[in-house]
Design a protein that fits this description.
This protein is α/β, with parallel strands linked by helices and about 500 residues long. It has 18 helices and 17 strands. The protein folds into three domains: about 130 residues, 3-Layer(aba) Sandwich (Rossmann fold); about 140 residues, TPP-binding domain (Rossmann fold), CATH 3.40.50.1220; about 190 residues, 3-Layer(aba) Sandwich (Rossmann fold), CATH 3.40.50. Bound molecules: thiamine diphosphate.
């Protein structure tokens, strides 16, 4: 099937499979003991190679552990193959050790699943190579090695789907009431095409950091877009790429916005909205080319909303300067340093949101990834490890709970490129995204602490445990980052008071 990379999680039951694999040439084998992170690692590998990756687990709860990553792969349209070893089918329903009901365990999040025992016939029937797949293999403990060294890894090719771009062309028929483009995460090969298209159109753009275009579009990129678009809502929104991070995308669900026409161009085909909208599913460059992007005429800024951009940018700069030790200001400062890195991974929750709103916009930061399929805070370090295995100067920004979720992942970095690796942890003492919800704001302090999982831990001994360098930053003056030979953990502790004051003042900006 063209699967060249495997992440193996050993157990007694899957030994025959792993043993077989280790006899194959031309395959890359990674190993990790913790199946949940291993599956996220496989996802990261696919971000890098753009080819399928398989994970091989033993039986029992080991199989269940891969579900979060399978879900993420489902929504990102990545071909993760789960090969689970199972006890012989006669054990089903018996409650015997490590014999659980594995068939169908990955539910709707795999495109198909096959349960094989004894003689193996044709496999992967009906696999589009775009979605996860589950192969459950019943093996006797005494199973011999199951394949021989003459196994040949085939070519990895995904069939091209038929593309209908007429909706896209028609979308531009009537644009006098304004069009805004929201660009979510893009695959690297699509960036040039999207950039060219947007420069031709000259409409206001909301570009997520994961688009890689946020700093390249100059004046076309809206500053404080959530506020601007709520006050000046265009008649049409074109979304390109992954589901956008910002608030305005969610606002589109509200009844007042029902009249806004939304068209998405998406590799995964998910609309990202519960309300009515249209979706063109396909590789983004193919869609843009198919619609002869270069012949689109300039639409421009019909609502005249870009002209306030300069003012909004300076207001924001002033606020960031007024509260230098607030979380948003420290994100801005970090973003100035991170451009020396080759790549950036943004954790879910506040990091990806604050980066989008507050990171610098002058220097390009083109290689940016995140797991935005299901927006989990799990498996983030493992995904990053997989994605950046061979990349120097890789940077990541994560929240503290997100980091605590993946504490064992650093073992995956043992043979990884370590040079210049920076792990920035924004330690605001819990899940602070919840503090921003009106319902939580109305709660008492104790209740807020429970919701946020408030804590006073720091990451110094965690960094030491893995032999990594460590630096703690309590205010802006202390932030000075220089990557070294081993990964560097930069624990950033924002000032709570300044952060609260910043958000209050930010909400009042005109
Ligand atoms: C696996 C998973 N569990 C729970 C959540 C719900 N959740 C969203 S954000 C968040 C808090 C994250 O806290 P932290 O990493 O410290 O980031 P902060 O909000 O402080 O930026 C939680 C628990 C989730 N997204 N994914």
């Amino acid at each position: 099937m063209g699967i060249r990379e495997y992440v193996v999680c050993s157990g007694a039951r899957n030994l025959a499979l792993i043993d077989s694999l280790l006899q194959c040439e031309d395959v890359v084998v990674w190993s990790h003991f913790e199946e949940r992170a291993a599956a996220f690692y496989a996802l990261g590998r696919m971000m890098d190679t753009r080819e399928p990756c398989a994970i091989i687990t033993t039986s029992g709860t080991a199989v269940a552990e891969v579900l979060p990553a399978v879900i993420e792969c489902h929504y990102q349209a990545r071909p993760l193959v789960v090969i689970s070893a199972d006890r012989p089918s006669s054990f089903r329903g018996s409650g015997a050790p490590q014999a659980i009901e594995q068939v169908g365990i990955l539910g709707n999040f795999v495109e198909g699943s096959e349960d094989v025992e004894g003689q193996v016939g044709e496999l992967f029937n009906g696999w589009s190579k775009r979605k996860p797949w589950h192969l459950n293999v019943c093996l006797d403990e005494s199973a011999e090695t199951v394949v021989t060294e003459d196994l040949v890894v085939g070519d990895w090719k995904v069939a091209k789907e038929k593309l209908d771009v007429s909706t896209f062309v028609r979308f531009f028929d009537e644009v006098w009431q304004g069009v805004v483009v929201m660009v979510g995460g893009l695959e690297p090969e699509d960036r040039g095409e999207v950039m060219h298209f947007l420069k031709t159109l000259k409409v206001p753009v909301v570009a997520d950091a994961t688009s890689g275009l946020r700093e390249l579009l100059g004046d076309l990129c809206l500053v404080n877009p959530d506020k601007v678009l709520r006050e000046n809502t265009p008649a049409k929104i074109l979304r390109i790429g992954e589901v956008p991070v910002g608030r305005f995308w969610r606002d589109l669900e509200s009844p007042e916005m029902a009249k806004v026409e939304v068209l998405s161009i998406s590799r995964t085909g998910f609309s990202g909205l519960a309300r009515e909208s249209q979706v063109i599913k396909g590789e983004i460059s193919r869609v843009l080319n198919g619609a002869a992007a270069s012949e689109f005429a300039e639409v421009g800024d019909v609502l005249d909303i870009l002209k306030g951009n300069g003012r909004r940018a300076s207001q924001l700069d002033e606020l960031l300067e007024a509260y230098p030790d607030s979380e948003p200001s420290l994100v801005r400062l970090l973003s100035l340093y991170s451009t020396v890195g080759e790549s950036l991974y943004l954790g879910n929750s506040l990091p990806i949101r604050e980066w989008g709103e507050f990171a610098q916009r002058d220097l390009p930061q083109e290689i940016v990834r995140a797991n935005r399929g299901a927006n989990g805070i799990d498996g983030q370090l493992a995904t990053w490890a997989g994605w950046t295995h061979g990349i120097d100067d890789a940077w990541v920004l994560l929240g503290d709970l997100t980091t605590l979720y993946d504490l064992s992942a650093p073992i995956l970095f043992q043979d990884c490129e370590a040079q210049g690796r920076v792990i920035a942890v924004m330690n605001n003492g819990g899940g602070r995204i919840f503090d921003r919800l009106p319902r939580v704001k109305a709660m008492g302090e104790a209740q807020r602490g429970i919701i946020a999982n408030e804590h006073a831990f720091n990451f110094e001994s965690w960094a030491t445990m893995w032999g990594w360098d460590y630096q703690r930053v309590d205010n802006a003056d202390e932030l000075e980052i220089e990557g070294g030979e081993v990964p560097l953990v930069v624990e950033i502790v924002p000032c709570e008071k300044q952060t609260a004051d910043f958000w209050e003042a930010y909400a009042k900006l005109k």
